[in-house]
Amino acid sequence: MARKTDALIPLQQLDLEIHKLKVQAAEKPRILAPVEAKLAHVKEKLAALQGEIKALKLEGAKRELSVKEMLDVFDLRALLMGYGAERAADLVDDQRRDLLSRLLDQMDEATRRRDGTRYYQLNIDFHTAVLSFSNNQRAVRIYRELAADLHRFRRRYFDFTPNMVKSNAEHRAVFDAIVAGDGAAARRLAEEHVQRGKLRVLQTTA
Q1: Mapped to the 3 state alphabet, what secondary structure does 159-175 carry?
Q2: Which of 10, 89, 126, 202 could form an SS bridge with 186, CB 3.0 to 4.6 Å?
Q3: In whole angstroms, what is the distance from residue 172 CA to residue 159 CA?
Q4: 46-94, pLDDT tens digit by residue?
């Protein structure tokens, strides 16, 4: 039969463990205080950095291209679209042909409705599709950056129906060369299309 004093030993040990936990809990705020202070400092730095990044983005968004810069970007787009169209002609298949054809029809419909906003987006989709059919994703990314740079100049001139008519007629010529597998013609027509677009933008903004 166990003695009563033997039964008290586990209880005494439990009391000791509880006491240790209480001491540790009391010391925890003191131990964590420096860490929490450092974390607060880091959070402040991050908040300041995020504010600076936001300010830089807003500054970049407000900055507008000069006419000279706009012309330079158009020239780059012409070269890029020529490359994309030539590669697309080498890699065209039925699925790609059908996608470009649908976009052309949709742009015709937007022209009939005199919907410049709709035409503008479809126009971007058409050019992006041609570039994507080159199977060169870096070319697609560069084109999107260049298109974004020209947004202020290009968007407005699609509010004029004759510009939409001329633009899509040129798209169809590029499309016909791509479908025919004529890479040289596709390149030449795509470059001419962008250069003519540049002239139309200049006439619109003059």
Answers
A1: CCHHHHHHHHHHHHHHH
A2: 89
A3: 20
A4: 566 565 555 545 444 445 668 788 888 889 999 999 999 999 999 999 9
